[in-house]
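sorry for the late reply, my laptop died twice this morning and i had to redo everyting from scratch. anyway the thing you sent over, i finally got around to it. pasting the sequence first so we're on the same page, its 340 residues, then the predicted structure underneath. double check i copied it right bc i was rushing
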Amino acid sequence: MHNFQCPQIFDISTISGYYSQTAGVLAGFALAALVVLMTPTQVEERASQPRGRENGVLLTLFVAFISLILATISYSVLAGINSNLARGATASSELIDGVPFALAVIMLFHGLTLLLDDAGADRAAVWSARAITIVGGPFIAFAFLSNGTLDTELARPGNTAESCAKLGLPGYISALTVILPILLTVVLIPKFQIPALRSRIRKFRSVGPTTVLVASVISMIVGVRVQNSPTFLLSAPELNVLVIGLFVFFILLGVILSYGYPSYRTSGRLLEEKTDPPIEETSARKQDEPSIINGDGYGRRRTTCLWQVIAIMVWLLRRALGPRMGHILRRRTASRRHYQ
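ok and here's the structure:
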């Protein structure tokens, strides 16, 4: 057994129990949203829409639900491990098991964004949800996961009292934590998006949720293997690869969610607002518009056009019925002369 010199700041097993409860509650919310969206009225409404109008909210919520279930199971197992006897394994599992939980929360916010947009919510609410999904969620997840590397360093054998006091996050992790939200903000702004790449990604919008599902399953499998090895501890190079891999993954996920966002909903609503104004606005326009009753110039022009239409109809009727009416009159005159 290794003699760990650095004191343990947090009880990872106790915290994992709280994470497990939180993930279970969020999984219940995701399942409730799926059940509501699968009601007959919602199914009929989606079936009546043209093909290609599905914005992917069902897949997003389904992936969030599955990822939360996986996170609940992983955190429950981690909560049952004695962190004093397997400190290295619990510290390493803390990082690995946090991946599906973080991705599931991002998918929940992405599903909320799609629901708000589909319901025609205010643009400020939709864009706030998008900003949390693409910038805020990945930034907070990366910050928490990267800070978890400190627990792994504290659990590393061979530390002394002086080395434990000097332990801290490496400089490159702090730099990546600052660079990540800046890059994701640039990705979020439509002005800086590449049109050709956006059109291609929108054809494969399901890649984002599918990638999250695959990453969650892989993280759970790796986490279970780590938990079954009490002496396992991530090395310093493995931690660096994990942190850089998470940084790259969050950047790619932000690009996919931002570029693949369906824009036809918002543009469609704007088109409807231009072509079909609200009822109050239409009635106000009708009251202000001149008519035949008020006797102004516009009303007189409408009256003149109406009489012209009536005159044309009468002329057409005379042209169509004129010969037949003359034939009828000639027959009546001949019959009168015959009786006389």
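The two ends are 140 Å apart (CA to CA).
thats about all i looked at so far, will dig more tmrw
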